[in-house]
Design brief:
Structural class: alpha/beta
CATH architecture: 2-Layer Sandwich
Number of helices: 2
Number of domains: 1
Order of helices and strands: EEEHEHE
Radius of gyration: 18 Å
Largest sheet: 5 strands, mixed
Strand order of the largest sheet: 3-2-1-4-5
CATH topology: Nucleotidyltransferase, domain 5
CATH superfamily: ATPase, nucleotide binding domain
Shape: globular
CATH class: Alpha Beta
Helix content: 10-25%
Strand content: 25-35%
């Protein structure tokens, strides 16, 4: 499977890029509007996954307000559909976010082999 990249942006268009790192107890959210040097990173830790999603959406909306992006700014959310599957995509799409689901097997990884050391090299 080859990664697909489609650009649907217009010059000067404000976009809020959001990346979710999902685990069984907490989600990390990285948010970047392209205007700052580093992304804002937040953590949500509700016990129920549905509540974590609600907290994540509240965090996204707070960043929009804080960054003066406006409620209609294009918001693109990226996450890996692991144990949580696709229910997150359906919920985020319903509220108007664009969702990109990442297949981790399609991301190239460079494994650097370590050279074996032995006692003579010390």
């Amino acid at each position: 499977m080859q990664p697909t990249r489609i650009n649907h942006t217009m010059r000067g268009e404000d976009i809020l890029a959001v990346a979710l790192e999902l685990s069984s107890s907490t989600w990390k959210i990285a948010l970047h509007d392209g205007k700052r040097e580093k992304p804002a990173i937040q953590t949500v830790a509700a016990k129920v996954p549905g509540h974590r999603l609600d907290e994540a959406m509240q965090t996204i909306e707070k960043i929009k307000t804080k960054g003066e992006l406006g409620p209609g700014v294009r918001t693109v959310v990226l996450y890996e559909a692991g144990q949580d599957g696709f229910w997150i995509e359906r919920a985020l799409s319903k509220v108007g976010y664009e969702v990109v689901i990442c297949d981790p097997a399609s991301i190239p990884v460079v494994y650097r082999s370590k050279s074996a050391t032995n006692s003579r090299e010390r």
